[in-house]
Design goal:
This protein is an alpha/beta fold. It contains seven helices and seven strands. Helix content is 31%, strand content 21%.
Amino acid sequence: MRLRHKPWAKDKLSAYPQYIIQNPVDWKGKWDQAFSRKGPIHIEIGTGKGRFITEMAKANPSINYIGVELQESVIVSALDRLIEAEVPNLKLMNINAEKLKEYFEKGEIARVYLNFSDPWPKTRHEKRRLTYKTFLDSYQSVLVNQGEVHFKTDNQGLFEYSLKSFSEYGMLLKYVSLDLHNSDYEGNIMTEYEEKFSNRGNRIYRCEVQFR
């Protein structure tokens, strides 16, 4: 799907420093100060339009959340949602997930969420998948010891690839659902894509994995 360019996006992101972290490298090692309180930090890589991360922040006020999104033209939609919701425990970052360790110290992040990531189905694009080993290196570099990655997708090929990637990396598989919406899992918060794909009859896959 082609992404519609929004030339005004950069200016809008700059206009809301209370929601969009402007200079994230400055907060490395002191993210509690960015939120003006202590608490575990969960991040979503590829936060899209922000439905999941905003609803998670509402449901879990004791946890601090950061939505990470590379595309300016996408994260402005998440910003609009955050402005409307006014949840104090959520910030957004317009950065590349490959460079997480430039912005966070080891142990600053408690959990990583990956929701409906681009599957990059062609073999030559494997390194772009958010469950490829270099991205797993990036997540491990900022997570607490035995930190977790929670992953959802409707793409069976990507899910199977990811399970293999997690296993080869030596991660512990804690939970797997091959049909989330017909399982006994409670507390699921849907993304925009999840609702759309589910309404089409697509099966939703989900897993929770832990670094050893």
